[in-house]
Amino acid sequence: MRVNFKVYKWVMLAPAAGVTDSITRQIARKWGADACVSELISAEGLIRNCPKTNALMAFEESERPFGIQLFGARPDSMANAAEAASKLNPDFIDINCGCPARKVVGKNGGSSLLKDLDKLAEIISSVVKATELPVTMKYRSGWDENSIVAVEVARMAESLGIAGLCLHPRTRTQGFAGKSNWEHIALVKEAVEVPVIGSGDIDSPEKAKEMFEQTGCDSVMICRASFGNPWIFQRTKHYLETGVLPSMPTIDTRIETALEHLRLSIEKFGPYNGLVRMRNQLCWYLRGLPGVGSIRSTLVQLPAEDEVIKLLNNFKLELIEKGYGTEEYKETIAGSSLGKN
Questions:
Q1: Which of 89, 235, 285, 325 could form a disulfide with 228 if both were Cys (CB 3.0 to 4.6 A apart)?
Q2: 197 DSSP 8-state letter
C-alpha cells in the first residue's frame, strides 16, 4: 500500500477545467497554495497524442508539488495515460471520479464511475500498477442521495494502493448546488489511514478552519473561491497558524496581480488569445469593488493589452482618490462572498 503522499495541513488549489491553467497555478503558488493539480485531462486524448490534451499537462517547476489529473472509463486507457503522464515527472497522478459535467459522465468518466464500483476498482488498480508515482483520487459522495458510497469507495481505493483521497461531499446530481455534507469527509477520515483532503464550500479562511475542526481532514482544497482571489491561500494559512484573520490586499495589489496574470497569459498564448482567455479572470479580480459594473462591459470588449492596462489603472486611481484604500474598506471586501468550491 502506498502511503507516501504526505499532505498534512496543506491548503491546496483544486483543479477546474478551463480556469486553473499553468499561469493560474503559478499565481496561486506565489500566494501560498501548498500544491496544485492540472486541469482535467482525457485519458483517451492523451494516448492518442492529441496536441491540446498534451498542452494541458505542461507545468513549471514553481508549481510543485504538482499532480496530473486524468479521467476516463477504460482501465487500459487510464493505465496507458498514467504511464505517459508519469514521464513528465509530476509529483503525483490523480484519478478524477468527481466531475459532474455531462460531456465527462456521458463518456462514463468522472462521477459516473461511482455507479460502477467494479469498473472503478479496475481503473484504480490499473493506474496504480502503471506508475511509480503516488496515485490519488478526487471523488464525490455518490451519484445521488440514494447511493452514498463515500466510505465504501475510500476503503476500496485504499486497499488497491491509492495514496491519498480528496472528497467533495456532494452528489453528482447536486452538481454545485445546495450544501456539501462535511460529515461524509469525517466518516471517510475515520475509515482510512491515507491522508484525506476535504473540499466543498470553503469560501473563506474561517470556513477552512471549520472544515479542519469538524472533519479531522488532513488538508483542504479550494477551487472557485480562489478565482480572482489567489490571496485566499496565504490568508487561510495565516489564520490557521495564528487565529488572526488578515485583511484583504490593497486595491494596488489586486490590480497589479490582475495585470501580472494578464501579462503572463499574453506571453504564453499571444496578444489576442491571451487577452480573450483573461476576460473572465479580470472580472473575477475586480469582483466586489465599488463601481466595477461601470467598467466591466468595456473591459471584456477591449482588443489590446495596453487599453486594458490603462482602464484598470485609471479605475484603481479613482478608487484610491475616493478613499477605498483604507483598512475599513479592506475589511469590507474581506467579508464579501467569493463563491464555493
A1: 285
A2: E
What does the alpha-carbon distance between residue 159 and residue 1 come to, in Å, rounded to a whole number? Answer: 7
CB atoms within 10 A of CB 49: 9
Distance in angstroms (rounded) separating the CA atoms of residues 227 and 229: 5
Which residues carry out catalysis?
99
Query: pLDDT per residue over 21-32, tens digit each?
Result: 999 999 999 999
CB-based contact 257:285 (threshold 8 Å) = yes
Evaluate the omega torsion of the peptide bond into residue 65 and state whether it is cis, within 30 degrees of 0.
Answer: yes
- Crossing angle of helices 182-191 and 205-215, rounded to 10°: 40
Residues 200/139, Cβ–Cβ less than 8 Å:
no
pLDDT for position 57: 95
- What one-character-per-residue DSSP string does 142-161 give? ESSTT-B-HHHHHHHHHHTT
pLDDT at residue 325 in the model: 64
The position carrying cell 442521495 is 145
Is the pLDDT at 194 greater than 50, yes or no? Answer: yes
- Could you give phi then psi for residue 68, rounded to 5 degrees? -100, 125
Contact 147, 184 (CB under 8 A): no
